[in-house]
Design goal:
Layout: H1 3-17, H2 19-25, E1 29-30, E2 43-53, E3 60-72, H3 82-95, E4 99-104, E5 111-116, E6 119-124, E7 128-129, E8 134-135, E9 139-155, E10 162-174
Parallel strand pairs: 1-2, 4-6
Antiparallel strand pairs: 2-3, 3-10, 4-9, 5-6, 7-8, 9-10
C-alpha cells in the first residue's frame, strides 16, 4: 500500500482519538468534508499532500508533505481567529514529533493502524496464503517522525470562516 495513503489514515485516526483535539471537534475530522449534511464548526480536514522521492547513497526514501486544515465559524471565540488558533495549536501538539512505523507487505496483506503511547504504528493483519498454508511475512520499511513546518491563519473570502492551514513533513526510508 502507498505510504502516503497509510499516513493519511493514521493521522486522521490519531486526531480523532486525541482528547485535546476531540474536545474541540468531537469526531469531525475528515479526509474529504461531506457536502450533506454540512458539518458543524469547528472541524478538521485533510488538505493537499506531496510525495518527493528522496534517495541518498544506498538508501531509498520518500518525503511526504501534507496539510491539515482547521475550520471555525460562529460567535464568541469563533467570530475572530481565537478558536481556530487554539485548534491549530492542539493539532500541532498532537502530531509534531509523532513516530510512525511503515510496514511493507505482500499484495494480499491488510494494514491495521494503532496509536500507542509512544506514537503511531501501522501493523499488517495476519494473512494466510491458503495455497501454501504459510503466513505472509511483512517487513518494516522505515520509521517516520512527523514534523510540523508552518501554520498559516487566514479568513476565508466569505468574511466569516476562519481557516488555519498546518503543514507537516515526514520522511520514509524504504529498504
Amino acid at each position: 500500500m502507498d505510504p502516503n495513503y497509510e499516513l493519511t489514515r493514521v493521522v486522521i485516526n490519531r486526531l480523532k482519538r486525541d482528547v485535546s483535539v476531540s474536545g474541540f471537534v468531537a469526531a469531525r475530522v475528515f479526509d474529504r468534508v461531506p457536502a450533506e449534511p454540512k458539518p458543524v464548526f469547528p472541524y478538521i480536514s485533510m488538505g493537499p499532500s506531496d510525495v518527493l522521492q528522496d534517495d541518498a547513497e544506498c538508501i531509498m526514501g520518500e518525503e511526504i508533505s501534507f496539510q491539515i486544515d482547521c475550520w471555525s465559524e460562529g460567535d464568541g471565540e469563533a467570530y475572530g481567529s481565537a478558536e481556530v488558533k487554539k485548534l491549530a495549536g492542539v493539532v500541532k501538539r498532537c502530531l509534531h514529533g509523532a513516530e510512525v512505523t511503515v510496514i511493507d507487505r505482500e499484495p494480499f496483506e491488510r494494514y491495521r493502524a494503532e496509536d500507542s503511547a509512544s506514537g503511531i504504528s501501522l501493523y499488517p493483519s495476519v494473512v494466510m496464503d491458503f495455497s501454501t498454508g504459510l503466513s505472509l511475512s511483512p517487513r518494516e520499511t522505515g520509521n517516520v517522525t512527523i514534523d510540523h513546518r508552518i501554520t498559516r491563519i487566514m479568513r476565508e473570502p466569505n468574511g466569516i470562516t476562519n481557516h488555519a492551514a498546518l503543514s507537516f513533513r515526514a520522511f520514509v526510508e524504504i529498504d
